[in-house]
């Protein structure tokens, strides 16, 4: 990419990404579909951006891209920024992608979008994690393979069942039956228990089409668009068996009901609650007026979406590792069809591979144009001429071959998180529903899966930084466990390093401060300055080990004294945290502990605030100041190094807080932490040797 001038910085509709904010990313606006603004087109034209559409037709996608300055190339051309296709991609096509090129499907997405595979994946999760935890689809059988099981279930409940081809869309081939004899067994089909108590509006059955965007499966990132469509049947619902063959009553697909003589369309885009297609917002407003808890309902729908994607995550993530050369090559927009029953429980009907983007009504254009524009902004098209295949400016610098494996993994983790934050900043009307603060406990399985499929060092980097990206609560016991593990890493480094990056006086200073808050006395001996450095480190390592032992005993006593850990249900899953503690590096633990201190505005859980009559009491201001600082051992080489003196230890910390709250802006804080030894410390004996 050629260098970017000051004029480039002033381009409209451009965001700047990457470590040094030197990579231009195009921002889209829905108004371009009708305005055809020259200024909006100028960016795409300046960089010669290109797209191709393969095996599908989408006037909306083509219109938005062309009006943003893209030009269309032949389906066989390899010089494109976006390939928009209606089918799955062959592995050889995926392997050939450049880092700036994007395609709108992940490999093996059929694990979600084929009805039989979706059901089997959810069934596997039900067996592994409990039926009730993944009870998001009606009882289902794949025929003819499971015909005997189906017959046994049918004999116990002779209600209606719905038949669906395993790989179809738009309501094609779907019908209801009331007897197994009505079911053909010469092809693979799905038979599901029919939900006979659907929630009705004005007597009509409806379902909801939701637009779900996934930008990564490794790790999983899920966004839900803020608006969707409620699609109504055209005949009032009646569960009598005599009406079982009336598709206009039982099916809600637009492609089916638009053929009905009773279908009502609306020509006013500002009227969202009239006819057979409403906006999701209008539907929710109606339900609220009827006294329904729509907040609970949407929470359950988000839960359903996340669980469905988790069920297929391992298959798709594995395929991405095998076939996709760059993490940012793929994104996918899914159409989730959800039915709500009379008890306000949502049921997943199916997941559509390429949801319809047809705009047969003004409401369609209003919702879908905004959604596609926001999606293109979020996924981030780098402004690069596809004919100029040169390294991006952020790729220049140290050759990756010169980096050790740990550095590479840390760089990969930081790149993932920077990308997630940049996506979040460009999200528009999309809401990130995974990960969020609540997902730590709700979906701990996802983090266990992550630990199984990625190297442990990368897992630890991700977990420590995810504390900042989607901060969970960390219990006091977990915080003390992390601090003890951190101290143990320091102890090992004291023994291992002959050329330590820290002076022994720092450890002495810490032990004076920390031991004064232990419940039992600890005898400390300051090693003589006449000893060689390695001997002084050995003595301090032994004393630090004694402190860790006493500290762990007090943590154990804390656990035993508590009937229940406060806010345990809001804390990170204990199994995941234990895995993290065992594998984490010193810097990983430091990130988590710094976050805990900043979040709670106190480090007293680490150092304590105990003062008895034998100790001089500090003022509250002294307590507040001293309890903030406990990372006094080591400044990593990539951070600011300063000479230590006896009065202060200064460490400059950069804390990029990537919050996932929907209405908050990311915060970038830069703070200088200063450690001042307390005036009233426990005396340390001087070792004469």
TrEMBL record:
Q: Region labeled Disordered — which residues? A: 669-689
User: Which Pfam family, any one of them, does this sequence belong to?
Assistant: TTL
GO CC term (a single one):
microtubule
Provide the GO biological process annotations.
microtubule cytoskeleton organization
Q: What is the protein's given name? A: Tubulin--tyrosine ligase-like protein 5
User: Which domain of life does this protein belong to?
Assistant: Eukaryota
Alphabetic keyword roster? ATP-binding, Ligase, Membrane, Microtubule, Nucleotide-binding, Transmembrane, Transmembrane helix
Known catalytic reactions: L-glutamyl-[protein] + L-glutamate + ATP = gamma-L-glutamyl-L-glutamyl-[protein] + ADP + phosphate + H(+)
Q: Where are the transmembrane segments?
A: 442-470
Instruction: Tell me the InterPro entries matching this sequence.
Output: TTL/TTLL_fam
Q: Which GO molecular-function terms appear in the entry? A: ATP binding; tubulin binding; tubulin-glutamic acid ligase activity
- Per the record's keyword annotation, is Nuclease included, yes or no? no
Similarity field: Belongs to the tubulin--tyrosine ligase family.
């Amino acid at each position: 990419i050629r260098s970017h001038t000051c004029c480039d910085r002033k381009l409209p509709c451009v965001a700047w990404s990457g470590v040094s904010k030197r990579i231009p990313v195009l921002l889209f606006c829905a108004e371009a579909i009708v305005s055809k603004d020259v200024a909006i087109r100028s960016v795409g034209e300046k960089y010669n951006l290109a797209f191709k559409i393969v095996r599908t037709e989408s006037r909306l996608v083509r219109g938005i891209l062309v009006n943003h300055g893209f030009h269309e190339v032949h389906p066989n051309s390899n010089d494109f920024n976006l390939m928009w296709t209606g089918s799955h991609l062959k592995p050889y096509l995926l392997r050939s992608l450049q880092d700036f090129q994007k395609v709108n499907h992940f490999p093996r997405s059929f694990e979600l979008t084929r009805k039989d595979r979706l059901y089997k994946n959810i069934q596997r999760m039900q067996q592994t994690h409990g039926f009730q935890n993944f009870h998001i689809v009606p009882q289902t059988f794949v025929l003819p393979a499971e015909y005997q099981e189906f017959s046994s279930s049918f004999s116990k409940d002779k209600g209606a069942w719905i038949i669906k081809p395993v790989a179809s869309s738009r309501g094609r081939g779907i019908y209801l039956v009331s007897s197994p004899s009505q079911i053909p067994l010469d092809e693979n089909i799905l038979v599901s228990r029919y939900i006979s108590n659907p929630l009705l509006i004005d007597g009509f059955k409806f379902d909801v089409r939701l637009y779900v965007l996934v930008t990564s499966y490794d790790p999983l990132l899920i966004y839900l668009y803020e608006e969707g469509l409620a699609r109504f049947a055209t005949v009032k619902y009646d569960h009598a068996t005599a009406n079982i063959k009336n598709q206009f009553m039982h099916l809600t697909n637009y492609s089916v009901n638009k053929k009905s003589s009773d279908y009502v369309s609306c020509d006013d885009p500002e009227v969202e609650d009239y006819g057979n297609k409403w906006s999701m917002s209008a539907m929710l407003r109606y339900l609220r007026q009827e006294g329904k808890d729509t907040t609970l309902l949407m929470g359950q729908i988000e839960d359903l979406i996340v669980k469905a994607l988790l069920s297929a995550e391992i298959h798709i993530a594995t395929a991405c590792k095998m076939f996709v050369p760059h993490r940012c090559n793929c994104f996918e927009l899914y159409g989730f069809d959800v039915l709500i029953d009379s008890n306000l429980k949502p049921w997943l009907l199916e997941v559509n591979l390429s949801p319809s983007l047809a705009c047969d009504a003004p409401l369609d254009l209003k919702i879908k144009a905004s959604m596609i524009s926001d999606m293109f902004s979020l996924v981030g098209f780098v402004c690069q001429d596809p004919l100029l295949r040169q390294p991006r400016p952020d790729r220049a610098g140290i050759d990756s071959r010169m980096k050790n494996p740990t550095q590479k993994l840390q760089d990969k983790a930081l790149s993932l998180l920077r990308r997630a934050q940049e996506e979040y900043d460009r999200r528009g009307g999309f809401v990130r529903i995974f990960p969020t603060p609540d997902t730590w406990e709700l979906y701990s399985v996802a983090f266990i899966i992550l630990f199984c499929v990625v190297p442990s060092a990368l897992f630890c980097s991700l977990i420590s930084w995810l504390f900042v990206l989607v901060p969970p609560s960390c219990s006091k016991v977990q915080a003390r466990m992390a601090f003890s593990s951190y101290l143990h890493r320091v102890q090992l480094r004291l023994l291992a390093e002959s050329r330590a990056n820290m002076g022994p006086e720092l450890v002495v200073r810490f032990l004076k401060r920390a031991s004064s808050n232990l419940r039992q006395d600890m005898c400390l001996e300051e090693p003589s300055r006449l000893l060689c450095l390695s001997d002084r480190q050995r003595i301090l390592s032994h004393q630090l080990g004694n402190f860790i032992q006493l500290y762990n005993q007090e943590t154990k006593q804390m656990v035993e004294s508590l009937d229940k850990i406060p806010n345990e249900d809001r804390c990170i899953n204990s199994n995941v945290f234990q895995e993290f503690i065992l594998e984490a590096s010193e810097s990983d633990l430091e990130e988590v502990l710094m976050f805990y201190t900043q979040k709670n505005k106190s480090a007293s859980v680490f150092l304590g605030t105990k003062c008895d009559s034998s100790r001089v009491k500090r003022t509250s201001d002294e307590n507040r100041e001293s309890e903030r600082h406990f990372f006094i051992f080591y400044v990593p080489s990539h951070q600011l190094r300063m000479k230590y003196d006896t009065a202060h230890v200064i460490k400059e910390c950069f804390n990029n807080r990537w919050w996932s709250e929907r209405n908050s802006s990311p915060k970038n804080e830069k703070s200088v932490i200063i450690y001042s030894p307390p005036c009233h410390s426990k005396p340390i004996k001087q070792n004469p040797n």
